[in-house]
Amino acid sequence: MQFKLKFVLASALLAIGVAASAQTVIKFSHVVATDTPKGKAAEFFAKKAAELTKGKVKVEVYANSALYKDKEEMEALQIGSVQMLAPSLAKFGPLGVKEFEAFDLPFIFDDTADLHKITQGPVGASLLAKLEPRGIKGLAYWDNGFKSFSANTPLKAAVDFKGKKFRIQSSKVLEEEIRSVGGIPQVMAFSEVYQALQTGVVDGTENPISNFYTQKMHEVQKHLTLTNHGYLGYAVIVNKKFWDGLPADVRGQLEDAMKQATFYANKIAQDENDLSLDGVKKSGKTTVYTPTKEERMALKKAMAPVHTKMAERVGKETLQTIYKETGFDPEKL
Q1: Does the CA dihedral 68-73-75-77 come out positive or negative?
Q2: Which of 40, 189, 224, 241 is the least buried, fewest Cβ under 10 Å from its Cβ?
Q3: Could you list the residue range(s) of the whole structural domain that residue 119 is in?
Q4: Burial (CB count <10 Å: 0-12, 13-18, 19+), residue 333
């Protein structure tokens, strides 16, 4: 009897050990705060992945560049040091998939309805497919929101940008956007922006309000203009070799978890930006300005040439497809 009990106990311990060793760990790295739309969606995905796989998969989320800075994370994904990222769409231009830079074009989307015609339709799917030869599998698009400009002086007209240094992500389109209004583009890692603003290395930046607030940029920027001129979103991506190597049932469960996380991410994005805007206003540290319809149209016209100049880079066919879906025509401004 005692032998049988020991045998059963040993078998149970062995089973536990096998189960533990069989657990798949996904390192999910991103560069923003936990309390942003992307940060919350990443945590939501981790929870759903554990639930749907019944513990077979553990997603470890590393926020605020805790694992890699944004300049390093793409290479880390490609070599398999990290399995999952959610980089901004501008990050794919340097990989050679320049069509993603169409998302950086100023005023190309009027609202999220226009945006989702692309990200949730065949155009978005075809863009993600272009990542696969680079060893990357695209799973979903997550919204953050529309960007606004900030600086230590008011920004009401194109002339107000002249000579000022604006931090941007690495994107030739965004460089041209800043130059179109006389500004000086400064490419910089997201984790370095607060200090750069604080010390005057750059004069201003462009961000969705949730990023602006959670990174405490309102503490070092006196003026915020709600231009909603550009979109900032993310593509959730995985190392393709890792993804393809997962058991089919586990991969299906993770796809379900990602589908739920995507719905959640896009649902909360606007609410998070609204709450952040309220926080900025209540802080009393930053003056928030809403442009008039005429002021916004003037800025839109000033930046319209960016579309023409960048058409060859992002692909005329891609642009025309987006224009057809959204109804935007820069030549009619």
Answers
A1: positive
A2: 241
A3: 7-322
A4: middle
- Two tokens at 1? 């009897």
- H-run or E-run covering 127: helix 122-129
DSSP string, 136-187: EEEEEEEEEEEEEEEESS---SGGGGTT-EEEE-S-HHHHHHHHTTT-EEEE
DSSP 292: P
Residue 333, pLDDT above cutoff 90: no
- Cα–Cα distance for residue pair 178/158, rounded to 1 Å: 10
Residue 333 lies in a domain: no
- Candidates 150, 215, 226; CA nearest to 189 is 215
Average pLDDT over residues 98-104: 96
Mean pLDDT of 224-246: 97
| pLDDT above 90 (res 289) | yes
Distance CA 299, CA 272 (A): 26
Residue type, 333: L
* Residue 237 to residue 159: CA distance in whole angstroms: 39
Q: How long a stretch of residues is the chain?
A: 333
Q: What is the reported pLDDT for 71?
A: 77
State yes or no: pLDDT of 8 exceeds 80.
no
Rounded distance, CA 292 to CA 312, Å?
33
Report yes or no on whether pTM surpasses 0.70. yes
pLDDT per residue over 216-232, tens digit each? 999 999 999 999 999 99
Residue 2 resides in a domain: no
Are the CB atoms for 82 and 27 separated by under 8 Å? yes
- The CATH number assigned to the domain holding 181 equals 3.40.190.170
